[in-house]
Design brief:
The protein has 5 helices and 44 strands. With 556 residues, the protein is mainly beta.
């Protein structure tokens, strides 16, 4: 144990906050490559990688220019060469060999497990691999399912065409969704049949519920012991999160909502329906439903709150006491939690952001508070409810703002930039750099003496447009394991400059969620291809871009 403790101290020394000479190393970019600098600006890890994951006990997963992954120490020395297509860090395990964590590794389409010294624990020869719990791995090899612990010992195996393991934490056991003779069923760890092999498909949902698709197209729902909760009378069942299931009757084709206990929450009487919830409304989760084209809002008990007036109804955690309603004329209005319209005027667009609601009419913008109160006229070229804590603190001190007045957003008009307070005042930008700001020259050395502008005549664009950008984020975002295990969700924000040639520089994190989300958002932006540059007065210009990156767990 003393040797283990000593090794841990040595491995942790580089990133220990008490190591004042190298405290808090920072990620920096140089062109398309990134590395780490210490507090004196010296490179600790040279800029030779296109991404570096958050340091963990003197270990960092890196990606080189060939997009392969490897592992380095705090000096930039390779522990594992960049030869894996994926290298996924796992939490600490109940294993002496993995006291610093292990890594699921993929090479040439096959998977295995390596430790933090680069030694193979499970050979890289399995078709798939993942963690089941803190000490058990699940692999599939050539038609045979295997579960192994973190020392490579086989705990479970069986001859199935397919088997996907699912946990049932409330029941303290494990189950396999398995296929045999081209039919699917559910078995437990001891191979006891829970659901017979007679289904076209079986899916385990959160809350220990099982969706069964029967041959003939009907759906049912059971618990993890195979007890029927909903009979096979549905054309469609979809888990919507928060314990709700959207259901469509097989005979009538009408839709509604049930909960995972089988109780009808919204009658199956609608042509279309959905869940309207941000999880923090306090009184529960709401529903929207349409009999023809227009929708109405319903409370958690299924009571109708509005007439059938709206094309769509949405909600946001940034404005927890409001609903955004789109009218048939495509204008948006705000509703309170009783479904009553607020006096705010109809607008062309509404966007709940971190500190305010951005509104748009035509090409002009303004700000509302998160409870729907109008703060500014709709007169700006741009207006955003995205202000960092450092900016709020600095402006509050400079202008002696007294509660409840606070800085809630910023706006631009022509070449002028303002910060907006909750009582509608326009404040000039801070007189000195933000406390958490870093000199941009330390990032890439490409300032060339001219500051980027936030609102050119023609904004820079991701190649292929907005839909291509969303597809890129969807296909390339890797949810950090730590964030997933801790249930972290929300929006990280990255700021960067799109240069005149479309390249991305000065990549900085404006808002972090912790648990590796910030580092993943940075990695995602650094992986982006060149953009179409912005233009002003007919010339390409350097443009400051703010990009929110949403992290949302499945089923929420």
């Amino acid at each position: 144990m003393k040797k283990i403790a000593l090794l841990y101290c040595l491995f942790s020394f580089f990133f220990n906050e008490k190591n004042t000479a190298q405290a808090q190393p920072q990620l920096h970019a140089q062109g398309r490559f990134v590395g780490y600098k210490d507090s004196t600006g010296q490179w600790l890890v040279p800029p030779q990688f296109i991404s570096i994951e958050e340091p963990y006990s003197n270990r960092m997963v890196v990606q080189d220019g060939t997009k392969n992954y490897g592992l380095i120490n705090g000096k930039g020395e390779f522990i594992i060469r960049c030869e894996y297509q994926q290298l996924e860090k796992q939490k600490m395990r109940d294993s002496t060999r993995l006291f610093l964590g292990g890594y699921l590794a993929s090479k040439n389409g096959l998977w295995g497990l390596v430790d933090t010294l680069g030694q193979a624990i499970v050979p890289v020869e399995f078709e798939t691999g993942k963690w089941l719990n803190k000490s058990t791995l699940y692999f599939y090899r050539r038609g045979r399912q295997l579960a192994l612990d973190d020392k490579g010992k086989t705990l479970f195996e069986g001859d199935y065409q397919y088997a996907e393991m699912n946990s049932a934490p409330q029941l303290n056991t494990w189950y396999f969704v398995a296929m045999k003779d081209d039919k699917m069923g559910l078995i437990d760890w001891d191979h006891n049949i829970v659901l017979p092999f007679e289904h076209e498909a079986v899916v385990v949902w959160p809350g220990n519920r099982v969706q069964c698709r029967h041959y003939g197209g009907r759906y049912s729902m059971t618990d993890m012991q195979g007890k029927e909760i909903l009979p096979a009378r549905f054309k469609y069942l979809k888990f919507a999160g928060y314990g709700f299931v959207m259901a469509t009757d097989f005979e009538t084709g009408k839709s509604g909502f049930v909960d995972t206990a089988g109780t009808v929450r919204l009658p199956l009487d609608f042509a279309d329906c959905g869940l309207v919830s941000n999880g923090v409304l306090g009184s529960g989760h709401y529903f929207k439903a349409a009999k023809t084209k227009e929708m109405a809002l319903f409370d958690p008990a299924g009571k109708q709150m509005t007439d059938f007036l709206y094309k769509d109804l949405t909600c946001s955690s940034y404005a927890p006491t409001l609903f955004f309603a789109q009218r048939p004329d495509k204008k948006f209005i705000l509703l309170d939690t009783l479904g009553k319209p607020l006096p705010a005027p109809p607008v062309d667009g509404l966007s709940a952001q971190f500190t305010a609601i951005g509104v748009r009419n035509g090409k002009l913008h303004g700000l509302f508070t998160s409870d729907g109160r109008r703060v500014t006229d709709i007169k700006y070229d741009a207006a955003y409810g995205m202000v960092s804590k450092a900016e709020i603190a600095q402006l509050t001190a400079e202008h002696d703002l007294q509660p409840p007045v606070t800085v809630i957003g910023h706006a631009t008009l022509g070449n002028q930039k303002f910060f907006i307070t909750s009582d509608g005042r326009e404040l000039p930008p801070p007189s000195k750099p933000k406390q958490d700001a870093k000199p941009s020259e330390a990032l890439d050395g490409k300032m060339n003496g001219d500051e980027p502008i936030p609102t050119p005549e023609i904004a820079p664009e991701f190649p292929g447009g907005e839909s291509a950008k969303l597809a890129f984020i969807t296909n390339n975002l890797r949810y950090p394991v730590m964030a997933k295990e801790n249930g972290v969700q929300g929006m990280a924000v990255v700021q960067f400059v799109v240069e005149r040639d479309g390249s991305i520089t000065n990549v900085q994190l404006a808002r972090d969620l912790g648990n590796g989300c910030g580092q993943e958002a940075l990695r995602l932006v650094q992986k982006m291809p060149k953009w179409t540059p912005g233009r002003d007065k007919g010339q390409p210009v350097r443009v400051l871009v703010t990009l929110p990156v949403r992290f949302k767990l499945e089923g929420n």
